Automatic annotation (TrEMBL):
The keyword Oxidoreductase applies. InterPro entries: KR_dom, NAD(P)-bd_dom_sf, Sc_DH/Rdtase_CS, SDR_fam. It comes from the Bacteria. Keywords: Oxidoreductase. This is SDR family oxidoreductase. Residues 3-190 form the Ketoreductase domain. Belongs to the short-chain dehydrogenases/reductases (SDR) family. It holds the Pfam family adh_short_C2.
Length: 248
């Protein structure tokens, strides 16, 4: 059976590294992206240069119609998905809770939580033996912020990742007997562009002294953990929240 993975937010950072790592592990890869077509195309081209098969599909995972279109496109082009990486997410500028407005909260929770639920729903409908599927694996990308809270910076982002942790635990139990494993990776402070969205591109270097390993993480270190959880090497793992955080 073909191994087919959708990586949301796959055009840069952890998503791009995961798409490349999955392709090197034998997956046909759909790189789902919001608005960086050039970056998504570059990931696809790198996969193809290495002999893999990939495609890029634009989708706002917070919009149900876009999620339906994404999965239907993969159905037609590659076949039914066997793996999903819910990586797409956003971070807004650092501020305290009393400064946050409803529009910001809606943006963060729609992208980070609603999008993950919608993509997981479509994956389950295709993978579950209950619906005639052959099983599969889902990895949600959470954050150690879910248990640290990110005070004075982005409590809303941390709360959205706590919701991802709960999605992981609950969904894993729902579909465990239907051939689907659901796990999460919780990255710590990783060198990616997302920190610029929070208004502090150099945040990792500022906080790395608080990390027991005394350094920030690299995207490949997260990608390898994600792809391992997708693999048969993690065949008895479901409902696990795996911290990849340098000891934080």
């Amino acid at each position: 059976m073909d191994r087919i993975v959708i990586v949301t937010g796959g055009s840069r950072g952890i998503g791009a590294a995961t798409a490349l790592c999955a392709a090197r592990s034998g997956y046909r890869v759909c790189v789902a992206y919001l608005n960086r077509q050039d970056a998504a195309d570059a990931v696809v081209q790198e996969i193809e240069r290495e002999g893999g098969e990939a495609m890029a599909v634009q989708a706002d995972v917070g919009r149900e119609a876009d999620v339906l279109r994404l999965f239907e496109f993969v159905d037609r082009r590659f076949g039914e998905v066997t793996a999903l990486v819910n990586n797409a997410g956003i971070l807004e500028r650092q501020m305290r809770v009393e400064e946050m407005d409803a529009e910001r909260l809606t943006r963060v929770f729609n992208a980070n939580v609603v999008g993950s639920f919608l993509c997981a729903r479509e994956a389950v409908r295709r993978m579950s033996t209950r619906y005639g599927g052959h099983g599969g694996a889902i990895v949600n990308v959470s954050s150690v912020a879910s248990r640290l809270g990110s005070p004075n910076e982005y409590v809303d982002y941390a709360a959205s990742k706590a919701a991802i942790d709960t999605l992981t635990l609950g969904l894993a139990k729902e579909v465990a007997a239907e051939g689907i494993r659901v796990n999460a990776v919780r990255p710590g402070s990783i060198y990616t562009e997302i920190h610029a969205s929070g208004g502090e591109p150099g945040r990792v270097d500022r906080v790395k002294a608080r990390i027991p390993m005394q350094r920030g993480g690299e995207v490949d270190e997260i990608a390898r953990a994600i792809v391992w959880l997708l693999s048969d090497e993690a065949s008895y793992m479901t409902g696990s929240l795996v911290d990849v955080s340098g000891g934080l």
